[in-house]
Amino acid sequence: MTSGTTGDSPPSPPPPGPDTGIVEYCPDPATDFNEEVESGAQGTVTWTNDGWSIRGQRRVSSKASFDFSGGGVTWDMDLSQAQGNVNNNFYVTYPYEQNSGISSYCDSGGNHDSQGRGCAELDYTENNGGCYQATTWHDDVGGGDGPGYGGNGGLGGGTVACSAQYSSDGSHIDINIGGNSNGGNGQTGVMKDKGAVIYSSQWVGWVPGDCGYGDLGSSVYAVKNLKITGRVVQGPEPRRCHPVTTPAPSPSASCGGSSMEECVHACPSATFSDCIECCVEKFPSIQLV
Q1: pLDDT of amino acid 7
Q2: Taking the CA of residue 271 as centre, how many other CA atoms within 13 Å lie in the half-sphere pointing to its CB?
Q3: Residue 175 half-sphere exposure, CB side, CA atoms within 13 Å?
Q4: Is the Cβ–Cβ distance between 263 and 279 less than 8 Å?
Q5: Numbers of helices and strands, H then E, in the chain
Q6: Distance between CA atoms of 67 and 214, rounded to whole angstroms?
Q7: CB 216, CB 206: distance < 8 Å
Q8: Which end of the chain is more exposed for a tag (fewer CB within 10 A), N or C?
Q9: Could you read off the pLDDT of 137-169 as tens digits, one per residue?
Q10: Spatial CB neighbours of 146, under 8 Å, sequence gap ≥ 6
Q11: Which of 72, 68, 54, 77 lies closest to 180, judged by CA?
Q12: CB distance 34 to 99 below 8 Å
């Protein structure tokens, strides 16, 4: 297990609710995420109700960007079929505009958007197959600090529990990937301004640690049980864990008939008093005696 920035523990995030403006999202990935295909890349994405699996080279991204202050992200990664020397990951960047696909992608260290702008980046985890991982901060809002800084540690393969939890003001984040814990800068300013877009991909070119060699085309990893807690900054709101419902109208609010007599006669016994009040409002010139 590794540890990052040390110091006093940050305050626990407040529970979601109307007082904080925080919403719990349980995205429908097929609707709330993009599949991004780079030129020449070979791979497939399979959507599930609470995540996805990727075989070969593909990237997915949230259609919305988020302010995670007082909330965060939790997910599981199934690495049982991921191969060594293949990078499978889960991270955020802070695009200038809401994410609409690969044309707007930008990160730290060379990948710029259509206007040539780089973006700050926070790699919650980049995994080497299923045996090793790295968490890396790239704080420069212009995307100029390619190497970044952070921590790393071993993974046991199989399914790995992951979380990124933010302090109430978003200034601090605690990241736990399969027991490897790192804490540090929550990148508050750029997160509140532009919002964080969630990305997850599989590719080859760099991995942390040394876990042998495998084949990208047959390497598979899956994200499961994805839950986002925060506020949407840009883009469409994803599926909520607890949908907002409109209360059914009270039976007392309705009454029928074209006259006071018909209205009163049609009132059900269960809501008779309330129905009479409705009739009086409907036929105000008629007095009941």
Answers
A1: 42
A2: 14
A3: 28
A4: yes
A5: 4, 15
A6: 37
A7: no
A8: C
A9: 999 998 988 789 999 999 998 999 999 999 999
A10: 108, 109, 110, 138
A11: 77
A12: yes
DSSP class of 196: B
The distance from CA 38 to its chain's CA centroid, rounded to whole angstroms, is 23
Compute the CA torsion angle 96, 162, 85, 57 (nearest 10 deg): -50
Burial 208-238 (b: 16+ CB within 10 A, else e): bbebeebebeebbbbbebbbbbbbbbbbeeb
Q: Give the burial string for 181-193 (b: 16+ CB within 10 Å, else e).
A: bbbbbbbbebbbe
Dig out the tokens for 37 from the structure.
């295909």
| HSE-CB of 250 using CA atoms within 13 angstroms | 8
Rounded Cα–Cα distance for residues 171 and 186 (Å): 5
Kindly report the pTM of this predicted structure.
0.79
Ramachandran region, residue 263 (left: φ > 0; alpha: ψ -120 to 50; beta: rest): alpha
Strands 43-47 and 52-56: antiparallel
Taking the C-alpha atoms of residue 16 and residue 168, their distance in angstroms, rounded to an integer, is 11
Task: Give the pLDDT score at 221.
Answer: 98
Q: Where does residue 195 rank: exposed (0-12), middle (13-18), buried (19+ CB within 10 A)?
A: buried
**DSSP assignment of 252-271, as one string?**
GG----SSHHHHHHT--GGG
Token pair of 72, please? 């965060």
Measure the CA–CA gap between 22 and 11, rounded to whole angstroms: 16
Interval 2-47: pLDDT, tens: 444 434 444 444 444 444 589 999 999 999 999 998 888 899 999 9
